[in-house]
Amino acid sequence: MVIVVTRSDFAKLPVEPSVASAGPERGWLPTGMVNVLHAESEVQTLETELLDTPVAVRAIPTSYHWDLGDGNTITTSKPGKPYPSEEVSATYSGEGWYDVTLTTTFAGQFSVDGGEWEDIDGTIEVESEPIALYSKSLESRLVNPDVPLDEDEDPIVPERTADTEGPQDPEARNREI
Q1: What pLDDT, on the 0 to 100 scale, is given for residue 153?
Q2: Residue 151 domain-assigned?
Q3: Given this model, what pLDDT does residue 82 score?
């Protein structure tokens, strides 16, 4: 009896999404400022059983597709690195709320009852939870010199409504890194 794990079998397994990070932790960034993207993703080993035989399946991250919410996308084989790296990064040209979504492509391998690892034909895609970011247009303004400035205060970030959604970039493109 020969046991083979198919792409369809692979897709039914509970492969965890990558942990996506975008922009500064505070949830907003100035329009035109670099939005640093990175994913935490490791090889996952899942145990299952086929025809009463133990089978191990490895999910190996191979590529990352970032949808920036403004029509722009980035596809890369690199998970990116946290700030100050700009290995995987982008900017927003318009003010508003955007959802950044990461889809990780996983290749698979399987091992029947502790045997050699064999490749699974095809790949699967697993989407991470979207990250909401607000891109804020900042402008200089005169301030009262007698009132102390709170440099840690965030600029006004509005509630998310249909009117505060960010515009689509008319020059949107898919970059490959």
Answers
A1: 63
A2: yes
A3: 92
- Structural domain including 21 reads 7-158
Please state, in angstroms and rounded to a whole number, the distance separating the CA atoms of residues 101 and 78: 16
In this prediction, residue 24 carries a pLDDT of: 82
Show the tokens assigned to 130.
């979207």
Domain count, the chain: 1
Query: Of 71, 133, 125, 77, whose CA–CA distance to 100 is shortest?
Result: 133
Strands 131-136 and 96-112: antiparallel
To the nearest 10°, report the CA torsion of 149, 152, 158, 164: 110
Which of the residues in the chain have pLDDT under 50? none
Q: What is the pLDDT of residue 51?
A: 87
Residue with tokens 């205060």: 153
Within a domain: 164: no
